[in-house]
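Page 37, top half.
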Amino acid sequence: MVSMNKENIISYLKMCSNSTQLECIYACIVKNSYNQDCFMINQFVSACSIFNKMDYGIRAFTQMDHPNVFVYNAVIRACVCCSSPVQALRFYSKMLSVQVLPTSYTFSSVIKGCALVAHSRIGEAVNGHIWKFGFKSHVFVQTALIDFYSSVGRIFDARQVFDEMTERDVFAWTSMLSVHARAGDLVSAKKLFDEMPERNFASWNSLIDGYARIKDVESAEVLFSKMPQKDLISWTTMINCYSQNKLYQHALATFNDMTAHGIIPDEVTMATAISACAHLGALDIGKKIHRYIQKHSLKLDVYIGSSLIDMYAKCGSLDQSLAVFYKLPEKNLFCWNSVIEGLAVHGYANEALKMFNLMVKDGIKPNGVSFISVLSACTHAGLVKEGQRCLLSMIHDFHILPEIEHSGCMVDLLCKAGLLEDALQVIEEMRMEPNAVIWGALLGGCKLQKNLEIAMIAVDKLMILEPDNS
């Protein structure tokens, strides 16, 4: 690839499959003196965004003497796609400073960048530019503005943009419907849905998701049943709706219906279905789903992996849970938390602590859930010193403030060990008001140790918190 014409280089860009090839292609662009060709650099920058290699794209852009509006549009869009919205806004500012006039496509990307940084004032300034350059009537620019105002919580302004649109396509209608649905205003969302001249999958899915958010399962079911056709997102949204509302049997039945209709589930759908099995203790169904994943060669990613680890552990198959964990090519915090919790619940406290230490050694920073599992393991095994050391490490090494669950585990651990004064001290030093469960744990410890003095303190608190449960 030393001497080639423009058409050949463009063909190579379209066939490019990795970042190494991308770098070679740019070397070829420079070698053949196409590094000032606006069309060529436009294509190259777009290819860079596919591989999330914007450092290559920006390098090519900055070496141009006079990039035109299409190159600016490409680099702005690529920065937004690669989650670099601040960089995108800088290029937009530079574009204006060198007097390159923006197009409607410029604004659709710039507004998305404003939404990603969630900066209201910058968005307002860009809106002013839209009016100044005469793009206020462009449908996809106005649709992007609706999404922007929604992202900064300005629902009224989003609706005002929608109402003032002289022309609307299905995407504009769906965007506004989605804004109302996410805000919990299902009356306005349903009204828009009924008024839509045409609907797409996203329109139906947004409204179903809105009903799921406000726990109106019945309305979600009715809408789902009326869909003329359902895509993967439709099925997944309905499965999530059931799971979020603890209707796990319905979630699994819908999952089975989906596969019976020939829809191949993705990682999100699989993880939700596996999680439903965990809540139901449905080991056989969970194994069946696991076999389905293997049969269809679906990628065992961190989401499916952590769900399988959790499901097998909760269904009593700890060996299988550990087998999945060790086979995972990549492990995130959720995978580690699931296996630590599994070991803790099954009474393997020392193994849970070892796994926690391995996680930290592996460079994964624990969160509050990690420490709840470890403290729970210490409680089950009566490991007082380890539990105390763990709590201190949580606060001082990882800067995580104890929540009520952490304090509850610690009180339970100390009470079971007969250290009632220490347990009372933990309660008195809590950041939040202790609840009835914590005082109840202290009272239970007092009964075992026959400590009347501390028992009376716990009883007095419980009388205040639960006067009807005396």
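Page 37, bottom half:
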Amino acid sequence: MAFLSAATVFLLSLIHAQEALAFIECSVLNYGAVADNTTDLGPALTKAWQECVIPQVTTTVATDVLLYVPAGNYLLASTVTFDDAANWNLHIAGDIFLPFNPSLTGTMLTFENCENILLNGPGAIYGNGYRYRPGGDLTLYPSRPRLIRFQTCNNCEITAITLYDAPMFHVTMIGDNEAHDMSIIASHIGETDGFDMSGNNNYVHDVTVENGDECVTVKTPTNGFVAERITCRYTAGCNIGSFGSGATGVDVQNVYYSDVTISNSDAGVMIKSYPNCAGTVKNVTFTGFTLGGTTDTGTLQISDVTFENFQGTGTPTRPAVLLDCNKATPCKDIAFSGISLTDTKADSFTNACGSGLSGLSSC
């Protein structure tokens, strides 16, 4: 009798262990996808989401339900939007390729009004962007597609996936989200932004970006942003902005960049705006930068910005520090500490006043 009780306990324990490890897999192969790099993956993604994922989401654990793209080569020839999505995982194990289609526009994968979505690899998305920019011409197909967008989303995560050469921008995240442990590799040309982030309390860390435009950039509105352990190659640096001509209501606060390496770039850090913008950028810290470029800022009402521990080489065509601030609303409380950049032009300060070790007169 004692043996029976022990066996029963063991069996129950095994059942509970299996339940704890269980998840529901919605493979696109069961909904029309073919790993032949010819059949459009878009309709299969939508069908698997609607018919398999949505009905089976019963918990708030994203990895309990997987929309699964198995190993293999797939063609994504149409855009897909997951609207009002919550609590599931798009797991891409295969490689997804975009075709060259001059009429293809929009964003290839959009998550809209979403909550608690995990997008992960180990697969990759190949944008074939060079085919949309023959000879480096960015004007030939101005509406060419972007890769991934999280629009009005919170508690979402993108990780462990590699993105190659989007026709236009790679990742846009709006809300309260996280991007980490992934790479973006693109042509060294403009309009290839890596991560464009806005919202509250976004977190980007342990990522590598190689392109010819923004690396990890903060857009308006933002209140709370952290970027750590970032590697940027051939990029236009880690920036705030840009804010378009005549933009009003600019609001960027509480931004923190740390442990950033920027190499073979024409810029390091910029706060970019036009003189006729209106709004606020404040409480910004850039610390622990290693540069192979330079650092400069644009014009806007800017205050409480700290640059700490920048090391490396700049470029002889730009100063190590360029502050060109709005005359009507000068930059205030700009602090520099531990800056060691060589091979640059002389620093330039216009309509700016500092604090700490800034070298600027206080005001």
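Margin note: The first strand starts at residue 24 and ends at 27.
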